[in-house]
Amino acid sequence: MGWNLILLILTLYSCSFVNGSDSFANDSLDASLQEFAFKTLVRHRPLTGALYKAVLPTNLSSTEVSIVRVRSNTLWNKGANFSIIHIPSRTMSVPHVKRLAIVYQNLGNLSSHYYGMPGYSLITPVVGFMVFDASNVSDKSVRKLNLSTMGKPILINFSSLTPSGDMISKRRCIAFNGNGTVNLSEMKLSGFCHFRDQGHFSVGVPLEGKQSRWYLWVVGFVLGIPGIVLMGYAGMVSARILKTKKIQVMERQADEDLILESRWVGSSKMPSAAVTRTQPVLENEGNNMIIYTFKSKSTEQSKKSGFPLAVHFATLKALKYNNVICYPYNGQGIV
To answer: What is the pTM of this model?
Structure first.
């Protein structure tokens, strides 16, 4: 009992930070409540068909737990109607036992600590029941049983609910299964829910618009940050790829415009381009005339120096002076 109580306290504090149904915490709570219930049953030397309220520690003062022991043939003939939970007749335990114990729970203010459903708000405390083998209630290990109702529903009367107009159509019966899953069903009759098996149950309504929008904003913000980062990275990569392709196109175009011949230089083959010079163009080309005079002695000197007179004419021809007239000069005038 000591270890179960410590574990229950730890799970109670941990569940206060979790919104939803935690199977481990719920199982710990069920084990503790079942132990308190059976200790109460042993202490009272119970009578069959009598409902006993369990004594709980102060940290579970808002929770109500009760236990009743019934015969299997009584459950089959009359069912069990000892609380707000009504088990129909023609119900039997699986496996079959001579006597069984039903533990009823009402979690009260602790309901939201252990159970919850995203998008819904619980408007009633979580109630539930579990069935155990009561052949020997003094055993430390008590076997849990299953129920077969032959297809008949188990009826739960949430008497704390009051009619409130349009809210009736929004109410949903919620069943918290042992494996952590949750089932929703419509409330066909105001204040009453129908279920098929043992477990924990409540009534919930959808969250209001502001709370729903706040929830969507949080989800959108969490999912939007990675999306923005991914889009930014994709944009940078795309820009880099486009820039690389543009450079490649420019290089390819430059290679196609420039055609170089190949020449052998020694033992290496290298590209070679033809040299093109722009010829000088003079004003009034072809109409220019120059008069070139020379002393008669210059001819003899040119011959002696090896610089013939033809060189002067060649120089003038190269400068596009096509009309050249040469006159000998004797120092006093043109001869």
So the answer is: 0.57
